[in-house]
Structures are given as structure tokens and as C-alpha cells.
Amino acid sequence: MYDPLIDPAVPAAQPYPASYWAASTASTEPCNPLMADISTDVLVIGAGYTGLSCAIELAGELGREVTVLDANQSGWGCSGRNAGFVLRGTGRLGLAQLAKRYGTETAQQFHLEYGAALERVQQLIAAADIDCQAQAPGYLKVAHKAALGRQLPQQAEYLQRQFGYQVEYLSQAELQQRYMHNTQAFGAIRFPDCFGVNPLALAQGYAKLAQQSGAAIYGATPVLSWQRSGQGFIVQTPQATVQCRQIILATNAYTGKGFYPQLNRASLPALSSVIVTQPLTAQQLAASGLNHTQLVMDTRALKYYYRKLPDNRLLFGGRSAVYGKDADKACYPERLLVALKQCFPQLQQLEMAYHWSGWVSVSFDDMPRICQSEPGLFYAAGYCGSGLSFSSLAGKRLAQLASGVTLPPLPIYQSGLTPFPLPQFRRLGQQAYYQWGRFKDRYL
Ligand SMILES: Cc1cc2nc3c(=O)[nH]c(=O)nc-3n(C[C@H](O)[C@H](O)[C@H](O)COP(=O)(O)OP(=O)(O)OC[C@H]3O[C@@H](n4cnc5c(N)ncnc54)[C@H](O)[C@@H]3O)c2cc1C
């Protein structure tokens, strides 16, 4: 598999990965490659949620002329292959950690901004009538140890008091009775507003909306390089050049090694993997208690997340290989299946039907950035694997930033991503973190 820390450029004109989403989503007409030179006001590179939402805002709300180029197709990157958890948050810090780092008032502003991200997804779904199988809401953050379960009532009370967030504490018995017969679940906090979608259908819906708003989208068109020219840029693709005034990089974790070193040095691309099982029988659903649409994630350092899909399959995900060359090794999906069965021994007979992986962009300080990194050039990246809702808002914020609109005064809008110290050792650091995470999750 393509490895952004090793390969100089993202592969181009690739089919969607062989995911459950690709197999179960009605295919849309692929966008043609760019074959002749053009000029445009804003060039957006990358047609995931970030780039497409940015194009929707630029063309639809800000009246700008915009062209989107993707090396592959809309949603080929993370956006068409994620788990479909529309969560209220991004990065790796929860509200309590944000309050500790930035103060309570700023954390409250983050909470509002995260709410705006959820609303952005809902608005775009409604605006284009996107059939992305949005499920009834609810997200369970499940304690995987008894000691962590005992902290939940206090955490829930803190979220209610400081943020007015109407979360619900569920004891181990309530969780078992209402939502799951998971042997490794010791209580949960239920967040009422998060929900599950088909992520590829969502990305394709965004692409349609971007086009309806007036943006041009070209697929199978990798941007190879750019140089400054007059007030703007000349951008090189395999068949043609693009003259533009501004460039927006929405390539996130798929940014090739040599593409924009400033961004590459500040992001650690990490693999996230998902398995999807055969549909559960009525008996298996009853035995596991999973006959509902709640999103679930646990409190492990190396988290597991799962949800029931509309056709009664289970999607179960977690961290995977460190290097792209190892992504397709059978041991990684097998480990996920073993983990699923350890949580739900009632599902011993369940088989895996799909497995795939993708790169998420982990930032040095666990938070994304939306910024102008040099005159005329903007990027959003570093969602740390929690970017479905937030990238949809980040695209809008990028469009506003590039159009001179003042953004909310949040730290993630004030600077670029922090470069990793000793970036050549990022993968060693990641391996050490995984070892530590496995030890912590098991013994601490
Ligand atoms: C397995 C998995 C599960 C996940 N589950 C969730 C989840 O449930 N909830 C959640 O919130 N987040 C989840 N995420 C993360 C989430 O999917 C991402 O944060 C989000 O999709 C990022 O969108 P994006 O538009 O920034 O990037 P992407 O969707 O990755 O888009 C980047 C695009 O840039 C293009 N590109 C790169 N280089 C070039 C170039 N030189 N020229 C032209 N095009 C280029 C690529 O082809 C790609 O299409 C998951 C990720 C993975 C991998």
C-alpha cells in the first residue's frame, strides 16, 4: 500500500479500495482528468471532505471560481473509507484535556465549534438530499476497565456542568441491559448527538453538491508541483497546467513525501483498519445485545470502535500496521476479529467479509490546524483519525480564511501544524507508542 512517509507521490487513477462501502454504494460517474490548460481563482487539491466542503463554500457561498483536482476520485482517500462515525470532536483531546491545555472558556468554544461541525454535516446532507443512510443518533464511550468505569459518573457530571452537554452516564448493568453484552465493558457515557453514516455516499454527495454550486472537479489528476507566477501560481499536472491565485491543500494524510515538505514534516500518517463481518443473525444480535445503531468506542490507548450497519453487519476498527508495505498482511484483520470476539464471546462463529485500511494524519500536539502557511497557500490537516465531521467544517473555515473572513478565535486557527522534532524517527516513536499502548491497555 502507498506509504506517505516513503513514496514521493500519491498513486493516481486508482479504483476505490475494496471496502464494504465501495461494494455497497451505488457508483457515481467518475470525474474526467484535466486534459487542457485552465486558469481558476482558487485551486483545491484533494477531493475528500475537506476539499469538497471548501469548494462548496467557496463556490456556493463566497462566489469564488474554484477548481478541485484529485489524483484519484472524490472520496478515494480517508473520506470514502472511514468508519462513518460523525462525532462531536477532532484530534486526540477530549473536552477535559482541552480545558487543561487552553482553559475552560476556550474549551467551551471548542465544544461549540464541534457542534457547528456536526451541523455542517447535517446541513450538507440536507442541502443535497444525500442518501448516506444516516442512523439514529447516539455514541457510547465505553470503559474497558472497571477502574475507568468508576470515573465515568464524575466525567459525565463535568461535561453537563461545564459544557451544558446533555450526556448520560450508564452503569455497567445499564449498559449491558440496554446496549451490549460486552465482557469488556464497565459502564459508558452516552453522547446524544453523534451518528453513523455511509462515508463514501457522503463524499460522493459532497462532490455532487460542489459541482451544483459551480465548482469544477477533475479526477485522476495528480498535482505534480507548483511554482509562483505573478500574483499566483502555475500548477503542473500530467497533461495540463493550472494557473490560479490561491492554492488550498486538502491532501491531509495522503500528502506525498516530496509534495509539500512543510506539511509532510508536521504530520505522522498512521494506518487505521476496519473489518466488516457477515450480517448477524437475529439470534446473534439478541445474544450480543447489539441490535441498535449506537456508535461505540472504548477507552483503550489503542482504541477499538464498532457499530452495526444497516444490513446488520458489524464494522469493527482499530490501529493497524505501522508501514504501508505491511497493511495487507492477514494478521491485522485477524487481530481485529479476535478482539471483537473477546468483547463478544457470543459471536464466536462470526466471519469477516471485508477488510481495508487508510492513512490518518496524526499531529505532534494531537490537534489539527487550518491555516495560511505562506502567502496564497492554505491547508487543513492533522485530525488524528477523528475528522469526519470536523473536516467538513474545516473546509468551510479554509474557504473563509482564503476569502478574508475572520475565523473564530480558536488556537487551531492561529498557526500551522507543529513540525515533529527529528521527523525521521516518527515511525520509531509510533512503534514505541504502540508497545506502550498495548502494555497499558492490558496491565494498567
Ligand atoms: C479506516 C479509517 C476509519 C476512520 N473512521 C473515522 C470515523 O469513523 N470518524 C471520523 O471522524 N474520522 C474517521 N477517520 C478519519 C477521517 O476519514 C478523515 O479525518 C477525513 O476523511 C479526512 O478527510 P480529508 O478530506 O482531509 O482527506 P482525504 O479524504 O484523505 O482526502 C485526501 C485526498 O487528497 C488526494 N491527493 C493527495 N495528494 C494529491 C495530489 N498530489 N494531487 C491531487 N490529489 C491528491 C487523495 O487522492 C485523496 O482523495 C477514519 C479514517 C480511516 C482511515
Secondary structure layout plus pairing:
Layout: H1 20-24, E1 38-45, H2 49-61, E2 66-69, E3 85-86, H3 95-102, H4 104-128, E4 139-142, H5 146-163, E5 168-170, H6 172-178, E6 188-191, E7 195-196, H7 199-213, E8 216-218, E9 225-229, E10 232-236, E11 241-249, H8 261-264, E12 267-277, H9 282-288, E13 295-298, E14 305-308, E15 314-319, H10 331-343, E16 352-363, E17 369-374, E18 377-381, H11 388-402, H12 426-443
Helix pairs in contact: 2-7, 2-11, 3-4, 4-7, 4-11
Describe the structure.
Keywords: Oxidoreductase. Residues 41-401 form the FAD dependent oxidoreductase domain. The protein is α/β, with parallel strands linked by helices and 444 residues long. The chain has two domains: 20-83 and 200-268 and 364-434, FAD/NAD(P)-binding domain, CATH 3.50.50; 134-197 and 269-361, 2-Layer Sandwich (D-Amino Acid Oxidase, Chain A, domain 2). It has helices at 20-24, 49-61, 95-102, 104-128, 146-163, 172-178, 199-213, 261-264, 282-288, 331-343, 388-402, 426-443, and strands at 38-45, 66-69, 85-86, 139-142, 168-170, 188-191, 195-196, 216-218, 225-229, 232-236, 241-249, 267-277, 295-298, 305-308, 314-319, 352-363, 369-374, 377-381. Strands 1, 2, 8, 9, 10, 11, 17 and 18 form an eight-stranded mixed beta sheet that branches. It starts with 19 loop residues before the first helix and ends with a helix. The model has no long low-confidence stretch (mean pLDDT 96). The protein binds flavin-adenine dinucleotide. Flavin-adenine dinucleotide is lined by residues 10, 45-51, 69-72, 76-79, 81-85, 87, 222-223, 250-256, 259, 272, 274, 317, 358, 360, 383, 385-388, 391. Flavin-adenine dinucleotide binds next to helix 2, strand 12, strand 16 and helix 11.
